[in-house]
Design a protein that fits this description.
The protein is an alpha/beta fold and about 220 residues long. It has helices spanning about 10-20, 50-60, 125-135, 140-150, 185-195, 200-225; strands spanning about 5-10, 35, 40-45, 65-75, 85, 90-95, 95-100, 110-115, 135-140, 155-165.
Length: about 220
């Protein structure tokens, strides 16, 4: 019997987009969660801050699920472009390296992904992290998800799409627009973009995000059935 997949994102908008693309209905939980007995999608907050709190509810009725860290990431390697899928061989965090033992059907794993605790906002910071770690992309949730899977003896995979490349700056206050549970406060997001003079980039970012999440959903389709 195929293992059920539990697909975890940092932000509710990511979970909502993936669920819609995969045809997963809303679950009756007090946070953004979707799915059925074969696959579920849910947000666990930036940095996976709500992972341990929400995992028991999300895994009710599921036997040894495959945890999937999914959603968006930032590019670190100059060769990585926006909307490109990142399926890493390992995830780095601090001095730890978490190998991704499982493989996503039809997708070859390449390079390392770096997990950090805050948005990497400037090209200079991205270049520094790339030189220091060799990671091709960066996110905030994958390392805790892999660690949680390993503690429980479950499998885990990572599939992310690049929303901003190595040359692109982001407003440092953008993370403040997302609450601890992964809900986006639209007003704060607009203030962060406006304050950074980046409203012009907001429309392009929205297009890149939508296209990237569509690519992630397509990569996940074999897990959903």
């Amino acid at each position: 019997m195929t293992r059920p997949a539990l697909i975890l994102t940092g932000v509710e908008t990511e979970a909502r987009a993936l669920a819609k693309a995969l045809g997963l209905p809303r679950l009756g939980l007090p946070f953004a969660a979707y799915g059925h007995e074969r696959a579920r999608v849910a947000a666990i907050g930036p940095g996976a801050g709500r992972l341990e709190e929400r995992l028991p509810r999300l895994t009710e009725g599921l036997s040894s699920p495959l945890l999937v860290s999914a959603g968006l990431c930032g590019g670190l390697a100059p060769s990585i472009s926006r909307r490109q899928l990142v399926v890493p061989e390992a995830v780095l965090q601090g001095n730890e390296r978490h190998p991704v033992v499982e493989r996503l059907p039809g997708r070859e794993a390449r390079g390392d992904l770096l997990t950090v605790g805050a948005i990497v906002a400037t090209p200079e910071e991205k270049a520094r992290l790339y030189l220091e770690t060799g990671a091709i992309a960066v996110d905030m949730e994958s390392a805790p998800i892999l660690a949680a899977a390993r503690r429980r003896g479950w499998g885990a995979v990572v599939v992310r799409a690049v929303s901003d490349d190595a040359q692109e700056a982001l407003p440092a206050g953008l993370l403040d627009a997302v609450d601890a549970g992964g809900r986006v406060r639209v007003g704060r997001a607009l203030v962060a973009l406006f304050g950074a003079g980046m409203l012009w980039r907001a429309l392009a970012l929205r297009r890149d995000t939508a296209a990237g999440l569509a690519a992630v959903a397509e990569a996940l389709r074999p897990l959903v059935g």
